[in-house]
């Protein structure tokens, strides 16, 4: 008889097409499994790949069918599962797992989900607001310089706009930004490359505009100023800081529940790509749109020049409407109406 240390499981062995059984042990040998009888004689041998294991269904005995058609049967389901797992098989049956899901476990899982939803809906927004409130100015500066230098190494390239062209755009930008609260605002020109026609605000007041967006405007500098005013609105409202904290909070929540978060939080906090991947909420977009109207009017320019920008986006980017500008600033169709209504109400 095989020694206990080698035995995977004990059970009965049935010759092919026979119901006469013999007590047997299932024993491994390099790349093979052997059914060994009580007298120590090998009853059947198969290479592992030629064996077939029945799925686990509750406490029903497991059947392992050898290449010669003989069958080893055992009630020791756990031993077989253990062997299958340790040898890299993936045949632990789903039916078994479902059956094992006790109602109490389901209730517990449901409670955990509800708790997660509750934190996400109610506690997280409050924590985000608190974090924004107590954030020292150095944090947005660090996030911004980190994000911009990452983007400069990856997506962005130095601008090809002439000094003269930049000066004209900066002059309008400064007129708009002078009406804004807090922060010092600075405009940065870059070739967008992969991110194409785009403008985005970093949390410390640095705003990036791509040559591609300037080209898209086709000389309508007032429209560019309106887009930049919208970005200033995002900085004023601390929208990107909120998005970053929210993403970090969600990642932390996932970590609490799942026990693993990977490098998500770190990516969001230090990588420019993470920053760009965060889309603003619709509420943040509406707020920035309204700020664009106010700031443009204060600067003596067309308050609703931003509407022309949406038209230009729709017209010129119709073929690839999933541009990053639209995906990070969602909700374009309704926004034009909202902007026009807001202007009418605030004139
Ligand atoms: Zn926006």
TrEMBL record:
GO terms for cellular component: membrane. PANTHER family: METALLOENDOPEPTIDASE OMA1 (PTHR22726), METALLOENDOPEPTIDASE OMA1, MITOCHONDRIAL (PTHR22726:SF1). It is an enzyme of class 3 (hydrolase). It comes from Rhizobium tibeticum. One of its GO terms (molecular function) is metalloendopeptidase activity. The keyword Lipid biosynthesis does not apply. Residues 167-340 form the Peptidase M48 domain. Residues 9-86 form the DUF7092 domain. Its cofactor is Zn(2+). CDD domains: M48C_Oma1_like. The chain crosses the membrane at residues 105-123. One of its GO terms (biological process) is proteolysis involved in protein catabolic process. Binds 1 zinc ion per subunit. Gene3D superfamilies: Metalloproteases ('zincins'), catalytic domain. Its EC number is 3.4.24.-. This is Metalloprotease LoiP. The keyword Heme does not apply. Belongs to the peptidase M48 family. Keywords: Hydrolase, Membrane, Metal-binding, Metalloprotease, Protease, Transmembrane, Transmembrane helix, Zinc. It comes from the Bacteria.
